[in-house]
Amino acid sequence: MPAPIRLRELIRTIRTARTQAEEREMIQKECAAIRSSFREEDNTYRCRNVAKLLYMHMLGYPAHFGQLECLKLIASQKFTDKRIGYLGAMLLLDERQDVHLLMTNCIKNDLNHSTQYVQGLALCTLGCMGSSEMCRDLAGEVEKLLKTSNSYLRKKAALCAVHVIRKVPELMEMFLPATKNLLSEKNHGVLHTSVVLLTEMCERSPDMLAHFRKNEKLVPQLVRILKNLIMSGYSPEHDVSGISDPFLQVRILRLLRILGKSDDDSSEAMNDILAQVATNTETSKNVGNAILYETVLTIMDIKSESGLRVLAINILGRFLLNNDKNIRYVALTSLLKTVQTDHNAVQRHRSTIVDCLKDLDVSIKRRAMELSFALVNGNNVRGMMKELLYFLDSCDPEFKADCASGVFLAAEKYAPSKRWHIDTVMRVLTTAGSYVRDDSVPNLIQLITNSVEMHAYTVQRLYKALLDDISQQPLVQVASWCIGEYGDLLLSGQCEEEEPIQVTEDEVLDVLEGLLASNLSTPVTRGYSLTAIMKLSTRFSSVNRIKKVVSVYGSSIDVELQQRAVEYNALFKKYDHMRPALLERMPIMEKTATNGPSEIVQTNGEAEPSAVEAKHPPPVAQPANQANDLLDLLGGNDVVPVIQTSMPTKPASAGGELLDLLGDLSLSGPAPAPSVPSSQPPFLLDGLSSQPLFNDIAPAGIPPMIAYNKNGLKIDFTFERANPNPNVAVITIHATNSTESEMTEFVFQAAVPKTFQLQLLSPSSNVVPALNQGSVTQVIRVLNPQKQQLRMRIKLTYTHKGSPVQDLSEVNNFPPQSWQ
Amino acid sequence: MSSFQMQFMLLFSRQGKLRLQKWYVPLSDKEKKKITRELVQTVLARKPKMCSFLEWRDLKVVYKRYASLYFCCAVENQDNELITLEIIHRYVELLDKYFGSVCELDIIFNFEKAYFILDEFLLGGEAQETSKKNVLKAIEQADLLQEPRHEFFTVPVY
To answer: Which residues of chain A make contact with B53, given a CB cutoff of 8 A?
Structure first.
């Protein structure tokens, strides 16, 4: 039997393969040879064979049959065997497989080996991949080695201890005694790893933190070490571009941060050294800036005096001007974190920040954008908006939605005049109109309605915008609505703000009918247009033309459009006397809560939807009596009320409890709005509810699923994709009850992970009839901009046979089409 | 819970071929493959003008290209990216000292040595030794322990 091919020989051979198939063939051949060699229990070449296997594993080929061989190598007496064996273990084994536990005994022996390099191998392996069980078994050995005078082993033991603590936090206490004089070591390796260990302990346990602050007087020790590093002369062993052991400096600064946080005394004790590092560190290379950066982070996190904080922010300001984009990036990240607390200091660097909007790097641009929005205030709003609108014009699509939302928010808060506000809104709609969020349309409509003196100007501008471009749906929708409402102002040429345009009724109707007919218009937009045309029947004189249009669409294939047209037809034919009253101008709307995004969240540059608290818009004040009549006229709709109302059983504190139960998942339950009778009529004539009545849902062919099935309660999920936003999945839950008693007071609640947003609409009822005689349905809308795998936790409460029932469940079996 | 952990380090070529993978968190082979594939694609798509940091899933990735090799570390979000760049640089310096003007071929043909060196520099994702000299000394000594007349030469050979 010839000796197996050498490792490097194999590598050379495999690299000559010209195709994937050829490579695969070579690998298979070699694997077969290796397998038979393993079967023969060959000790001499086991090491060589495993090494080859590791190479092939890196190429992507399976190597699990080598796992046990690694264990045999580890158990061998030869150092070479152990070296490869441990490497193999780290690459091929993992703690999910029981086989890894077989290593434990070997590691234990090797931790006590006479050769420090063998001990080192064992410590390294344990500290890299040790499972909780292994850590429990071997913690004692590690603790012993933490106390050795051999610095080579001590430093490794410290990091191994860190791993043990991460895996089995309860074991932290046992390492405490060994930490006593770790910091009096001269060896930098031990110092560095000791600081890491102390950091881990202080981070994990407030008691440890307090102990190290008070009893061990850690801060003065660290200050002393840091001072020595800075003041000492050139030390070739640890020098990096003129700085002595930057790694250790950074770690010390980090530990100081943790010790100084929320602690006046500690913060004071480190004040001087922080100032010293901040002013004396050489900044020509990345390494110096790395230290400065850590210093800034520490200054901002502890209770530093204001002079120091200003120093820190100025460092960040200088970073912003650095040629190195990495430095600019970290500066923006840090400024984002501090803009709330040190707003004025950051304001001083506003123009530099705004310049960063033009940076080529996507991450830098995003941070600059978020920071810019955070810096907008009443004084600088005009200038800032100009820059941000310019950015909106030219930025990548991935930014447009967030930027548009940000502009709307800032405009709402700080608009110097109504005219400016509307101009800004118009600008966003015309430049980024297809990217604005769904809820922008109702918000803008509300804004426009309430700016009474601007109606003529607004409708004129919107009309002109439509003449230019009808592809951007939110713009078209808002424009349609306005023309429907204020078309008479358009005709009368009453505009004060700018030159009034001359336009005829026919021209206006041409435009609206064009929208109806255009391929570019979504069903939602068509709905808006038809309604607008209808409204004009009381504002224009071309009633006949309007009647004709309306009757044509009475046979539209689009069910929603058809329904509207038929109803409007009915208005003309049978209820003409009611038409003027029904179609009159919308009243001023009460703004009870901020609609839409209430805050541009400091996501620190990460792409996350900025509407954090999805505050549900309040029910719009509608003349209720007329609407009731409408309900009667239309024969008592079975349409599910889609306004945000709650079944008035849940007390407002429920939100709190649920939060506790569901941990850190973001919560969305039915909004506890004022108790409105569930027969609230649907808003036919305006699309202001957050759930437009018309069907904006296009069936997407996603298979339904069973989300829950227990104790006779079954909950099915059916899916639709919401148009036009492909990131929103619309789920309808159907709850049925197969038991003989009905389930009353049924409440369904759901929570999703942080990257998602959830909107839960009102349920059809809160009684699930017995014996599957009916169901409770409820609609959930899930926004999933990051296209992550959808998961949900649901909570069900109901009363069954007189007793309250409550259950929590996870829903993980969502079909991939629902979130991809 | 720890906000300063390095989760993994990957070395790959400009064609996306993996040259080294060091994982400091437990993941299945399948997950590792998926992460590697996606991350390699993402990094290779970056333009030269972009900065060395990118947000990926809930991690921060720090990467730098040295000749034909990308060195890529994934750290948790609170970490100091600039010092991670220094860590990467230190590792490259160590390889360079050991192999003498290291190139990608050295790492391909002596991958196990690249791992040994990394394991003397980092442990559990943290630096265990900040002196270049000490790391190289340890490797040298360990190499000497290797049983003689073995094909794992201490001097790299293609």
So the answer is: 326, 329-330, 363
